[in-house]
Amino acid sequence: MNKMLKALYVLAWILFIGLCIRTGVILVTFLISIGINPEASSNLYEGLDLSSVMDANWVHYTLITGLIISIWALKSWMLFGVIQIFQKLKIQDPFHFSISKKITQISHVALLVGVLSILSFAYGRWLVDQGLMLNHFSESVRGGMEFLFMAGIFYVFAVIFRRGVEIQQEHELTI
Amino acid sequence: MNKMLKALYVLAWILFIGLCIRTGVILVTFLISIGINPEASSNLYEGLDLSSVMDANWVHYTLITGLIISIWALKSWMLFGVIQIFQKLKIQDPFHFSISKKITQISHVALLVGVLSILSFAYGRWLVDQGLMLNHFSESVRGGMEFLFMAGIFYVFAVIFRRGVEIQQEHELTI
Amino acid sequence: MPIQVNLDVMMAKRKISLNELSEKVELTLSNLSILKTGKAKAIRFSTLEAICKALDCQPGDILEYIE
Amino acid sequence: MPIQVNLDVMMAKRKISLNELSEKVELTLSNLSILKTGKAKAIRFSTLEAICKALDCQPGDILEYIE
Question: Which of B147, B124, B146, B25 has the alpha carbon at shortest distance from B67?
Answer without folding.
Answer: B124
